[in-house]
């Protein structure tokens, strides 16, 4: 199993600052990270497992002997892309430095080779002790990112360097380590995804094979980069999307109504949905009997992208094209005809791409540039498209 850059383990040490990590957890989630909390057994004296489970929506394991059949210390380590240990006490730092593995968190740290950040919090005398200084130097020499604690008041009347850093600073430093770019902060991104359905009768419809997976990847990527995201979802699963505004629609006309509400205030429009080109002239209220189901009279659906192109002011518009022949020429024509800034086209001959986690195709830019992609994950394509959109936003 490979690691996921959005999956983060938040290790919590046994310090009074553990309560501040509850806010840290929330702020990480706001950034699009999916967080599993692993408290040390002693830290549960400060913040209980129920709190971590309620906030993260996941189990909070502390011991290697929990769910032994899942081999948690290996499975969690393998799927996580980053670690952040906050707060890290002098004892926890010492145990990590000498390679101890006497609870689940220290086992995970040894079992994982992904980037790790340590956020110390302790009394100034402990932070300045030569043993702690040596342990911190050891960890930094091994590639750990160890933050300098803040200076200020601690428990009681004591003051000095050792205070848990402000959560905003931790998040900024963690973003820098993970490469999580907040380059869409303050921008509104509007995404359509899935496939519209045009009803024939209460049972049957005209539709397509779009799963909506690329739209989900785009919504996640934009949200992770700080955007205010609205997803107009047509007949697709959105259960894995958090932190974005979602409107569910059925038909092309439903989508047209929602786009009219949202388009003028967005900065980036990504038309990832597969919109049916035609709909039945008449939709019957009762199921058509098989014997009478001989033909369907169709009429054209509105061209949603063409309509929006006429209203375009400051928006960057990204379109998608699924073709089986002459896909580059067709996409280039669509790019020009519909005033798009970027279009992604793929060859879907034989059902390729639909429902899969990977894609291959070509990105075309309005300046004539073409970027061919042999095979990439839909998550990677989402970030790449946003990179090009940001370049054009300036």
Brief description of this entry?
Residues 185-389 form the DNA/pantothenate metabolism flavoprotein C-terminal domain. The chain has helices at 20-30, 49-56, 72-79, 90-97, 104-111, 124-127, 130-141, 167-178, 213-224, 252-262, 304-311, 327-337, 378-393; strands at 4-12, 34-39, 80-88, 116-120, 145-146, 150-153, 159-163, 188-194, 198-199, 205-206, 228-234, 245-249, 268-271, 278-280, 298-300, 316-323, 342-347, 358-365, 370-377.
CATH architecture tag of the largest domain: 3-Layer(aba) Sandwich
Largest sheet: 8 strands, mixed
> How many beta-strand runs?
19
What share of residues are in beta strands? 25-35%
Computed over alpha carbons, the radius of gyration is 26 Å
Sequence of strands across the biggest β-sheet: 12-11-8-13-16-17-18-19
**Shape type:** elongated
Helix percent reads: 25-40%
The structural class is alpha/beta
**First-residue to last-residue Cα separation:** 38 Å
- CATH names the topology of the largest domain as Rossmann fold
Low-confidence region ranges:
none
Number of separate structural domains = 2
CATH superfamily of the largest domain: CoaB-like
Mean pLDDT: 89
Q: Figure out the total of helices.
A: 13
CATH C-level of the largest domain: Alpha Beta
Description:
This protein has helices spanning 20-30, 49-56, 72-79, 90-97, 104-111, 124-127, 130-141, 167-178, 213-224, 252-262, 304-311, 327-337, 378-393; strands spanning 4-12, 34-39, 80-88, 116-120, 145-146, 150-153, 159-163, 188-194, 198-199, 205-206, 228-234, 245-249, 268-271, 278-280, 298-300, 316-323, 342-347, 358-365, 370-377. With 394 residues, the protein is an alpha/beta fold. The protein has 2 domains: 4-178, Rossmann fold (3-Layer(aba) Sandwich); 188-393, 3-Layer(aba) Sandwich (Rossmann fold), CATH 3.40.50. The strands form 5 sheets. Strands 12-11-8-13-16-17-18-19 form an 8-stranded mixed sheet, with helices on both faces. Helix 1 (20-30) packs across helix 8 (167-178) and helix 4 packs across helix 7 (130-141).
């Amino acid at each position: 199993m490979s690691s996921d850059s959005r999956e983060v383990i938040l290790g919590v040490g046994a310090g009074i600052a553990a309560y501040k990590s509850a806010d840290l957890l929330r702020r990480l989630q706001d950034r699009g990270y999916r967080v599993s909390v692993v408290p040390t057994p002693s830290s549960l004296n400060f913040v209980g497992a129920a709190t971590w489970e309620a906030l993260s929506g996941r189990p909070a394991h502390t011991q290697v002997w929990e769910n032994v059949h899942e081999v948690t210390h290996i499975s969690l380590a393998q799927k996580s892309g980053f670690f952040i240990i906050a707060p890290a006490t002098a004892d926890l730092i010492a145990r990590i430095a000498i390679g101890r593995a006497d609870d689940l968190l220290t086992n995970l740290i040894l079992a994982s080779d992904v980037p790790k950040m340590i956020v110390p919090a302790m009394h100034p005398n402990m932070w300045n002790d030569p043993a702690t200084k040596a342990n911190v130097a050891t960890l930094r020499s091994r590639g750990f990112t160890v933050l300098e604690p803040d200076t200020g008041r601690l428990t009681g009347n004591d003051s000095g360097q050792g205070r848990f850093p402000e959560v905003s600073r931790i998040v900024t430093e963690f973003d820098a380590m993970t490469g999580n770019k907040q380059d869409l902060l303050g921008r509104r991104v509007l995404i359509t995804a899935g496939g519209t359905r045009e009803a024939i009768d209460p049972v049957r419809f005209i539709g397509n094979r779009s799963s909506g997976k690329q739209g989900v990847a785009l919504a996640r990527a934009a949200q992770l980069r700080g955007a205010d995201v609205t997803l107009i979802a047509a007949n697709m699963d959105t259960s894995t999307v958090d932190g974005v505004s979602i409107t569910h629609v059925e038909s092309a006309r439903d989508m047209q109504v929602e786009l009219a509400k949202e388009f003028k205030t967005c900065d980036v429009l990504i038309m990832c949905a597969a919109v049916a080109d035609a709909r039945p002239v008449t939709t019957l209220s009762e199921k058509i009997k098989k014997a009478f189901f001989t033909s369907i009279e169709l009429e054209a659906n509105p061209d949603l992208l063409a309509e929006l192109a006429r209203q375009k002011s400051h928006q960057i518009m990204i379109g998608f094209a699924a073709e089986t022949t002459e896909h580059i020429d067709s996409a280039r024509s669509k790019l020009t005809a519909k005033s798009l800034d970027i279009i992604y086209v793929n060859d879907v001959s034989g059902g390729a791409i639909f429902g899969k986690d990977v894609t291959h195709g070509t990105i075309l830019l309005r300046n004539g540039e073409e970027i061919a992609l042999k095979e990439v994950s839909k998550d990677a394509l989402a970030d790449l498209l946003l990179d090009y959109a940001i370049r054009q936003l300036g």
